[in-house]
Structure formats: C-alpha cells, structure tokens
UniProtKB/TrEMBL annotation:
Membrane disposition: Multi-pass membrane protein
Protein name stated in the entry: Cytochrome b561 and DOMON domain-containing protein
Record field: transmembrane: 248-269, 289-306, 318-341, 353-377
PANTHER family to which the protein is assigned, alphabetical: CYTOCHROME B561 AND DOMON DOMAIN-CONTAINING PROTEIN
Function: May act as a catecholamine-responsive trans-membrane electron transporter.
Ligand binding (heme b): 217, 253, 286, 322
Natural source organism: Platanthera zijinensis
Domain (DOMON): residue spans on this chain: 59-172
Domain of life: Eukaryota
Cofactor binding note: Binds 2 heme b groups non-covalently.
Keywords for this protein: Electron transport, Iron, Membrane, Metal-binding, Signal, Transmembrane, Transmembrane helix, Transport
Main location per the UniProt record: membrane
Length: 402
C-alpha cells in the first residue's frame, strides 16, 4: 500500500517535469497564436457564436465577428473589461484611421441605470456623442454588462463592401450629462486602432498620418500633372491660332507648365517619401511612371533654355522634340493618376470629379481643334499662311516658336 503510493508519487514526480518540459516546448512553438487567440475562450449570452475573433492589443478588448459576403454585413461582438460606471466604444473609420471620423457605437449605463447602445460619428473637432446614425447601415445594436465586462453586439453593413477596414476602440469612465465625453490620452487609449480584414481576420497597423499624406500626394499630383499640364498644352495649341493672343499664349503656357512643374515636383517628392515609408509594399509601375514623368518634365523645363531662335534651322527639330515630350508627359500623367486612384482607392466622387475635369478638357480640345482647322482652311483659301499657328499678319511675337 505504502509502496504503491510511493511509487505513484515517484511516477508523478518523474512525470511532472517531463509534462512541464513538453508544455514548454509546445508553448514555445506557438507563442503568438496562443496568446493572440485568448478570445476563443469568450462565450456570449443567447448562445451567440461568431466565426472569427481577434484579441485586440490594447485595453484587453476582444472582437468577434461573422462576415456575410452575400449582403456584405458583419455580426460583431466587441467586449472589454469595464466597471458599471464606465463606457466602452467600438468604431469603424471608413475615411481615415484612429479616432478622427470614427463611426462609433458606445455602450454604457444610461440615467435609469440600464445598459444602452448609442451610435455616433465622432471627430477630433467635434467628439460630442449625439445618438445619430452612422455613415453605414447599422441593422441592430445592443449591449450587455456581465461581471465587469461590457459587450456591444451589432450587425452592420461594411462600408462599400470592403472587408479591410480601419477600426478603433476605446474604454473610459468620463461622462458629461450622462454621455461619454473623453478618455485617457496616454498609453493604450491612444493606440487602440488597427486595420482589420473581416474576411481573413488579419490585422495590421493603420498609420494615422498616412492617409492624410496620401491624400496630399494625390491632390498635388492630380492638380499639377493631371490638370495644369493638359491645360497649359491646350493654351499653347489653341490660343496661338488667334493672332491677337500671340505673346499672351506663350506667357500663359509657360506660367501653367512652370507652376504645374513646381507643384508636380512637390507631389512627386511626397510620393517618394510615401514609398520609402511603406517598406515591403511597392507599386512598381506607379512608381516607375512617376520617376519617368519627373525626368521628362525636368528635361522639358531645361530644354526651354536651349530653345533655338525661331529662325534657326534646328528650331523645327526642337519643336518636334518639345511636342513629343509634352504629349508623352500628359498621357503618362493621366495614366499614373488613374493608377494612383486604384492604389489609394479614395471615395468614388474624387475619381468621378477628376474624370469630369479631364473629360471637359478633352471636350474643349476637340472643339478648339475643329475651330482651329476651320480657321486654317479659311486662311488657306484666302491665300494666307497655311501654318495654323502663325499670326494673321505673318509676324510672330518674339517669344513665339511657331
Ligand atoms: C467621447 C468623446 C471623446 C473625446 C472628447 C476624445 C478626445 C480625444 C483626444 C483629446 C485625443 C488626443 C488627441 C491627440 O492628442 O492627438 C484622443 C485620441 C484618441 N481617441 Fe478619442 N475621444 C473621444 C472618443 C473616442 C472614442 C469613442 C474612440 C474609439 C472608438 C476614441 C479613440 C481615440 C484614439 C485611438 C486616439 C489616439 C489618436 C488616434 O488614433 O486618433 N476616442 N481622443
Ligand atoms: C445577410 O446574410 C446572412 C447570410 O445569408 C443572413 O443570415 C443575414 O440575416 C443577412 N443580414 C441582413 C442584414 O440582411
Ligand atoms: C461583397 O464582396 C464579396 C467578396 O468580394 C462578394 O462575394 C459579394 O458578392 C459582395 N457583396 C455585395 C453585396 O456587393
Ligand atoms: C437614440 O435615439 C433613438 C431614436 O432615434 C431612441 O430610440 C433612443 O432611445 C436614443 N437613445 C439614447 C440613449 O438617447
Ligand atoms: C502685325 O504687325 C504689326 C507690325 O507690322 C504689329 O504691330 C502687330 O502687333 C501685328 N499683329 C497683329 C495681330 O496685328
């Protein structure tokens, strides 16, 4: 009896270290996945089940969800430890990252001490909670308080059917007039935002200032390369037809192209910076076209200084060269702007706006081309110069290169 119990104890004594060793080996094999997936232990009332979950890196919060591709909705449950006098919040930010613009669902105890869920968009400029609708559909939302944990349940429509969305979450005890009104602005409360793919469950860091910088990059480049440059070309090609506008077109053209070049180089610089900051991701064709554009446009600006006199025998070659590079730059610019739209994927109206502008410029060019040729043909018939761009009395402004 005593021997068997002692042998059992000896066996246990021998087993425990080896089990521990095995466990240690096992743990060391899977440390991140084990620690990341503590959310799998969560359970919910009414037997609610979710197909995926993430343990969020701040505020001990967990997010659970089921994605329905058929209607592009997600059922989510966000839970975080909280005392009964506090609030929790979970938000998608479809237009940025972090809190600014977050489409938020709050949960807290209302004035009658009942748990309530309230939706409200918030921005840095106006973080007041208003109980108003969000930028996407919320089919249902409710909340729960169980043993110092608050939970938000919601069924929402993913904005623009994007599964990869920036989300942000928060927990705090600060209220004003019974509504959430602020949180700690240090530590984990400042880092509670990520990009989440509801399809794969993959999470990645969303850079807050990144989107703003990308937008600046997009605006600078579309305005300069995408609008000013073609406008300058239209000025050069069509204003010349009218003799009275003779020196004027040249100055307008130079002003257009030089300001486009300056703004464009600034935009190009922001692009290089974005590229070097986003290690691991390269959009090679967008980048290469951008670099080519910079080289061609720089060449174009410096070629101005080497422009032969209008009577020089090489002036014709210079003109051919200048036109060829000019049109190449415009075509490449437009191509690259559309590549940029695809990468940045901003709200559709930005792309639509650009398409409208470039289509208008194209339409104007077509009309002016027709007008130009009718003028030229008329001049030919009346025995005038058959060069489309020469002034009506044959003299040309000093700066003109026609
Ligand atoms: C309810 C009223 C709220 C007020 C008055 C408020 C106020 C602030 C302030 C003053 C900052 C610091 C800004 C800075 O120093 O750069 C901040 C940052 C932040 N807030 Fe709020 N906040 C509110 C609600 C929320 C909610 C509901 C969330 C999440 C759903 C949230 C998430 C964040 C995050 C993640 C940051 C860090 C910066 C960022 O990523 O945008 N806040 N908030
Ligand atoms: C979305 O589709 C899923 C699966 O087909 C369905 O269970 C759910 O009720 C739908 N949700 C909405 C809001 O239509
Ligand atoms: C949303 O996207 C998914 C995956 O790309 C697709 O299968 C689904 O049909 C889309 N749903 C809607 C409502 O557009
Ligand atoms: C929020 O507004 C809805 C109606 O728009 C109302 O039914 C609900 O009680 C409001 N909640 C709070 C907390 O004010
Ligand atoms: C035509 O030539 C005269 C000088 O001969 C010049 O003053 C004038 O600006 C030219 N252009 C037009 C459109 O008359």
């Amino acid at each position: 009896m005593s021997s068997s119990s002692s042998s059992a104890a000896a066996a246990a004594g021998g087993l425990t270290p080896s089990i521990l060793l095995l466990l240690a080996v096992f743990l060391s094999l899977f440390p991140p996945s084990l620690s990341q997936k503590s959310c799998t232990l969560d359970t919910f009332s009414q037997n609610r089940l979710y197909s995926l979950c993430n343990s969020l890196p701040q505020l001990s919060a967990n997010l659970h969800w089921t994605y329905h591709p058929q209607n592009s909705t997600v059922d989510v449950a966000y839970r975080a430890p909280q005392t009964s006098d506090g609030w929790i919040a979970w938000a998608l930010n479809p237009t940025g990252a972090g809190m600014d613009g977050a489409q938020t669902i709050f949960a807290f105890h209302d004035s009658r001490n009942a748990m309530t869920a309230v939706s409200s968009p918030i921005t840095f400029a106006n973080p007041t909670v208003k109980n108003s609708s969000l930028s996407f559909k919320v089919y249902s939302m409710s909340s729960e308080f169980i043993s110092d944990t608050m939970i938000i349940y919601a069924i929402i429509e993913l904005p623009r059917n994007r599964t990869k969305v920036n989300h942000v979450w928060q927990a705090s005890n600060i209220f004003t007039n019974g509504l959430p009104s602020g949180h700690a602005t240090t530590g984990p409360n400042m880092h509670s935002s990520l990009t989440l793919d509801f399809l794969s469950g993959q999470s990645s860091v969303s850079v807050n200032s990144g989107l703003r910088r990308k937008n600046i990059h997009g605006v600078l480049n579309s305005v300069s390369w995408g609008i000013l440059m073609p406008l300058g070309a239209i000025v050069a090609r069509y204003m010349r037809v009218f003799g009275s506008a003779d020196p004027a077109w040249f100055y307008l053209h130079v002003a257009c192209q030089c300001s486009a070049y300056i703004v464009g180089v600034a935009g190009w610089g922001t692009g290089l910076k974005l590229g070097s900051d986003s290690k691991g991701i390269t959009y090679s064709s967008h980048r290469n076209i951008g670099i080519t554009l910079f080289c061609l446009a720089t060449l174009q600006v410096f070629a101005l200084l080497l422009r032969p006199n209008k009577d020089h025998k090489y002036r014709l070659y210079w003109n051919v060269y200048h036109h060829a590079i000019g049109y190449t730059v415009i075509i490449l610019s437009i191509v690259n702007i559309f590549k940029g739209f695809d990468i940045l994927d901003p709200d559709r109206r930005w792309k639509n706006t650009y398409v409208a502008i470039i289509a208008t410029l194209g339409g104007i060019a077509v009309v002016l081309e027709a007008v130009t040729w009718s003028i030229v043909l008329k001049r030919r018939r009346s025995g005038g110069s058959d060069k489309p761009y020469r002034s009506s009395n044959g003299t040309v402004g000093v700066n003109s290169y026609a």
